[in-house]
């Protein structure tokens, strides 16, 4: 299974990501890109149509968390330990938002990630993110999860 397939499978089991319509655009050893389409569900100010910061936080936490599959040989349970987001400017209404994340250090206990939320290019970020994820080891998965994340229970 490719890194991109693993990332897509991981995203597909997260119900809030399904509801928000998030999709994996790219996943490889260089990192992960997830798209969050613009919708009424993520609008924070109905007058201006500006996206709520919580939607961007959700995108970036998800992106950083799933980026771990780009670096780990096997699926592991890695919940968020710490997440910091610095917002640079509001997202432009009516346009999708992309999240990019990469792991820049992997230790036996913690994975360190960083990335940006953007619309036009990574060089014009909406927000910067740094996230740390605790490594809890391989998860004992049931039959349904094993179909979604093959090899995760080995």
TrEMBL record:
<feature type="domain" description="Thioesterase">
    <location>
        <begin position="49"/>
        <end position="122"/>
    </location>
</feature>
<dbReference type="GO" id="GO:0005829">
    <property type="term" value="C:cytosol"/>
</dbReference>
<protein>
    <submittedName>
        <fullName>Uncharacterized domain 1-containing protein</fullName>
    </submittedName>
</protein>
<dbReference type="InterPro" id="IPR029069">
    <property type="entry name" value="HotDog_dom_sf"/>
</dbReference>
<dbReference type="GO" id="GO:0061522">
    <property type="term" value="F:1,4-dihydroxy-2-naphthoyl-CoA thioesterase activity"/>
</dbReference>
<dbReference type="Pfam" id="PF03061">
    <property type="entry name" value="4HBT"/>
</dbReference>
<keyword id="KW-0378">Hydrolase</keyword>
<dbReference type="InterPro" id="IPR006683">
    <property type="entry name" value="Thioestr_dom"/>
</dbReference>
<dbReference type="InterPro" id="IPR003736">
    <property type="entry name" value="PAAI_dom"/>
</dbReference>
């Amino acid at each position: 299974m490719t890194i991109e397939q693993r990332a897509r499978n991981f995203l597909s089991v997260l119900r809030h990501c399904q509801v928000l319509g998030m999709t994996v655009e790219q996943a490889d050893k260089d990192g992960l890109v997830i798209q969050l389409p613009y919708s009424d569900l993520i609008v924070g100010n109905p007058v201006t149509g500006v996206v709520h910061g919580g939607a961007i936080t959700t995108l970036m936490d998800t992106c950083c968390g799933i980026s771990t599959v780009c670096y780990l040989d096997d699926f592991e349970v890695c919940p968020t330990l710490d997440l910091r987001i610095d917002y640079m400017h509001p997202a432009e209404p009516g346009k999708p938002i992309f999240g990019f994340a990469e792991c820049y250090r992997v230790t036996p206990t913690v994975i360190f990630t960083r990335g940006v939320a953007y619309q036009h290019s990574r060089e014009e970020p909406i927000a910067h993110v740094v996230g740390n994820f605790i490594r809890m080891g391989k998860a004992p998965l049931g039959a349904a999860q094993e179909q979604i994340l093959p090899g995760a229970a080995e």
